[in-house]
Amino acid sequence: RLQAIRPHTSLTPANRCLYELLPGVFPLILQGVFRYRAARLFARMVRIASIATPNEHAVNNKPLADAVKARGGVAIGIQHGALSVFYRCFHPNDVDYRHLPHYTIFWGSYYLQTLEPENHNYTPQNSVYLGQLRTDIIPALLHSLQKSRLHPALNNQAPLLLYLPRPLVGAEQPLRQQIALDFLQLHQHFPHCQLVIKPHPLETDHHFFYNIAAQCGNPPFFFFFEELYKLLAVADIVLTYHSTAGADAVSFQQPLLVAT
After folding, report:
1. CA nearest neighbour of 249 among 234, 259, 260
2. Which CA distances in Å does 217 have to 40, 158, 187, 190, 258?
3. Which of 126, 132, 168, 201 pairs as cysteine with 108 (C-beta 3.0–4.6 A)?
4. Dihedral of CA 193/201/215/173: which sign?
5. What does pLDDT average to in each consecutive run of 10 residues of the chain (260 residues)?
6. What backbone torsions phi and psi does residue 187 show, to the nearest 5 degrees?
7. Cα–Cα distance between 18 and 217 in angstroms, integer?
């Protein structure tokens, strides 16, 4: 049915561009419609007084927050990593649709101050900020934390290479395997370095990394679940792939490699 749709001859160039993009995002639109209907059904069956969610504009979280709002509950959004385009792409007239949570929590005044001039939907009444990453957390960790405090087997003097993976599924699965393999093979070229992998919270198939290690001779590496900021504080080089943890590494002024 989607392929049968043809653009109207009077479409403006901007609307024609949107039309050309539609087939590529149709699966995401379908997912959003399904999740909205499921969330509304859930909210009718279960009384929820309040809901808090990170990444509150994403298609997997926003339907739940909106469903709770529609039933009289309070919705709270929590900033997830660097501010994405979803925070900036609203028009002032969108406030009539009440598309935002009742409150949004930001990581610090810096993010809120840069956002307010671009998106007037965020106001002092619906936006709050907590401790600032750069001014409150990073200085304390950089000046007080040593590698051996995270694990006694870590050498304070040896460089630490930190890999921050994330779940990659479907067509990106081979890329996930290749990046993990490339990282563990670094031991062949830099045997004096300490290799550390910090899995993403959604990566529960930890055997995946050990299977990859077996393919390249079981090089020594550490598999840590420590707090991310502590690992960033002691890392010497950080490797990631389209993860917001890369923005955190830059805040720590650590050398960052972005795999492609």
Report:
1. 234
2. 51, 22, 10, 15, 25
3. 132
4. negative
5. 64 80 79 92 94 90 94 93 78 81 88 82 88 74 87 94 86 87 95 95 90 93 89 94 85 88
6. -60, -30
7. 50
Q: Match 């936006």 to its residue by tokens.
A: 127
Going by C-alpha positions, the residue among 84, 161, 139 that lies closest to residue 252 is: 139
> 207-212: which pairs have CB atoms within 8 A and are 24 or more residues apart?
208/180, 209/180, 209/184, 212/177, 212/180, 212/181, 212/184
pLDDT score, position 227: 83
For residue 19 the two structure tokens come to 């039309």
Q: Which of 125, 130, 88 is nearest to 109 (CA)?
A: 130
CA neighbor of 197 nearest in space, from 173, 216, 222, 217: 222
Name the packing angle between helices 13-45 and 62-70 (round to 10°).
60
Name the β-bridge partners of 162: 196, 238
The dihedrals phi and psi of 199, each to the nearest 5 degrees, come to -65, 155
3-state secondary structure of 17: helix
Question: What are the φ and ψ backbone dihedral angles of 193, each rounded to 5 degrees?
Answer: -95, 155
